[in-house]
Design a protein that fits this description.
By secondary structure, the protein is an alpha/beta fold.
């Protein structure tokens, strides 16, 4: 008979352990899994009350996280200091404790008051530590009716196994929560970096035309109006779109951009609106379009003038009705997206030619912003050049301190067909070529140095070329020495008398450089 009872107990324990492991491996939250475990202990092993108490990460105390047979108020009272009561002592010592009769145990505090109406002489209390590695992170405790036939050693062994399984679940949950916090912190940091990076103050320009652009960005950013950014290629239209988004109430929502000219006509509709599985050959799964991805945020339609007429019709509907259907689908999708369009084309000419819809033009052109070409903002060239010099100095670990006057003159006199993008590439090349403290004219690309291509120079006779070269050297020396002729002569490995003669000959005023 005893053998049969022992076998029956072993089978019940194995069944309980299997169900406990299944519950802890489920996709539910940790609290839901632990509640399931406590219910299983009550059902399979005759537990009348039970708690899982975990060490608080915010205070040196142990508090009940999950319970069975306790009210919410009783759970709230279940807090213990380290070494306080049975639960606190188990956590502090890391050793299990058994109280056969809680009515006779002075260490049993009944902090939760859940046993006030029960005859304590009939209740046994078992408490085992919950470990994560060598660290005790909590305690698993159960009440059961006292019986002479109960083997407390067997109960402690089983609860220790279950506590170890709970410890693994707690450890996994900690890793998940730590990773989630890390990702949230990283997201907030990156979001803050984006806001700083694309702030309107980071767009470089001090010319009158750029001040007008800044004013328009500030006016439209706080609204939900559709914006049309126009200008030549390389003028910084995308920077304007970024500044509008990150200066708007949508700044924490997605900013999605799509270059309409880089996508084949047969795929542009799928990219914008998404497609259903099987909509066309190769559509092996449903794919959300850019409008869905940008829901709640901003969508930049770059090179909008290159979109075909069929897609323009659908774009008009999205802008007006805020809804669309995926390619191959019938279900209407609702979106809340702010659209910023950008183009370097003359849309008025496109409308006259019949390649751009007039109704779409007026729907996009609610708030137009014109980005001036670099040749119309000559006063910004030096500011931009110094910015790119600093940027590529840092990237290439160089210490180029300045740009020489002749090089500046070449930059300013060039017509810059590629606008700011071409200027940036020019400065990057110059930094890579330069192994001196300053960028000289010969570090600049040939297109800037050749008169025919730059439209900024004429052929010079030898004596004038020599004069220009000597003037360049003398001015550089005077700048470095703050107009001091003696020190400038030493820097040029000449004498003050010869340098003074050259200064008078070329009409250089040293006082300008003090």
């Amino acid at each position: 008979m005893a053998t049969d009872q022992a076998l029956d107990r072993k089978l019940r324990e194995l069944g309980a352990l299997y169900e406990v492991s299944t519950a802890l491996a489920s996709s539910m939250t940790l609290d839901e899994r632990l509640h399931r475990v406590m219910a299983l202990l009550a059902d399979k092993l005759g537990m009348t009350r039970g708690t899982v108490a975990l060490v608080s990460p915010y205070a040196e105390e142990v508090q009940i996280e999950v319970s069975f047979g306790l009210s919410a108020e009783e759970v709230r009272r279940g807090r213990y200091g380290f070494g306080e009561g049975i639960t606190g002592r188990v956590v502090a010592s890391g050793e299990p404790m058994v109280v056969p009769d809680i009515g006779e145990e002075p260490l049993f505090l009944n902090r939760t008051l859940s046993r006030a109406s029960v005859d304590k002489a009939n209740i046994s209390f078992l408490c085992v530590p919950i470990r994560v590695g060598d660290e005790v992170v909590g305690a698993l405790s159960v009440d059961r009716l006292f019986s002479e036939e109960v083997s407390f050693a067997e109960d402690v062994r089983l609860l220790t196994i279950i506590a170890a399984m709970i410890g693994q679940a707690v450890q996994l949950q900690r890793h998940v929560e730590d990773e989630r916090r890390r990702l949230v912190d990283e997201k907030e940091r990156l979001q803050a970096d984006l806001v700083r990076k694309y702030n309107i103050t980071n767009i470089i320009g001090n010319s009158k035309s750029m001040h007008q652009v800044f004013g328009m960005i500030a006016q439209v950013a706080k609204s939900n109006a559709t914006v049309m950014v126009r200008g030549e290629s390389g003028t910084g239209k995308e920077l304007v779109a970024h500044a509008i988004h990150y200066g708007s109430p949508r700044a924490k929502r997605p900013f999605v951009k799509i270059n309409c000219s880089a996508i084949p006509e047969t795929l542009i509709e799928s990219e914008l609106f998404g497609h259903e599985k099987g909509a066309f050959t190769g559509a092996i799964a449903r794919k959300p379009g850019k409008f869905e991805v940008a829901d709640g945020g901003t969508l930049l339609l770059d090179e909008i003038g290159d979109v075909n007429l069929a897609t323009q019709v659908k774009l008009l509907r999205v802008l007006q009705e805020k809804e669309f259907e995926r390619v191959g689908g019938w279900e209407t999708q609702k979106v809340n997206v702010r659209v910023i369009a950008a183009t370097n084309r003359n849309l008025e000419e496109c409308m006259a030619a019949g390649t751009f819809r007039e109704d779409l033009y007026y729907r996009l052109n609610v708030f137009p912003i014109y980005m001036p070409p670099l040749r119309e903002r000559k006063t910004d060239i030096l500011l931009l050049a110094e910015h790119f010099l600093e940027k590529y100095n840092a990237e290439n670990a160089k210490e180029i301190r300045r740009i020489t006057t002749p090089a500046i003159d070449m930059l300013v006199s060039y017509h810059w067909p590629g606008n700011v993008r071409e200027l940036e590439n020019c400065l990057e090349r110059a930094v890579l070529l330069c192994n001196e403290p300053a960028i000289h004219s010969y570090h600049l690309p040939p297109t800037l140095q050749t008169g025919d291509e730059s439209h900024s120079a004429i052929d010079l006779p030898l004596d004038e070329a020599v004069q220009n070269f000597e003037t360049d050297l003398i001015v550089d020396a005077l700048k470095a020495c703050r107009g001091n002729i003696r020190k400038g002569a030493e820097r040029l490995r000449s004498t003050p008398r010869i340098l003074g003669y050259k200064i008078r000959k070329y009409g250089i005023d040293p006082r300008r450089y003090r």
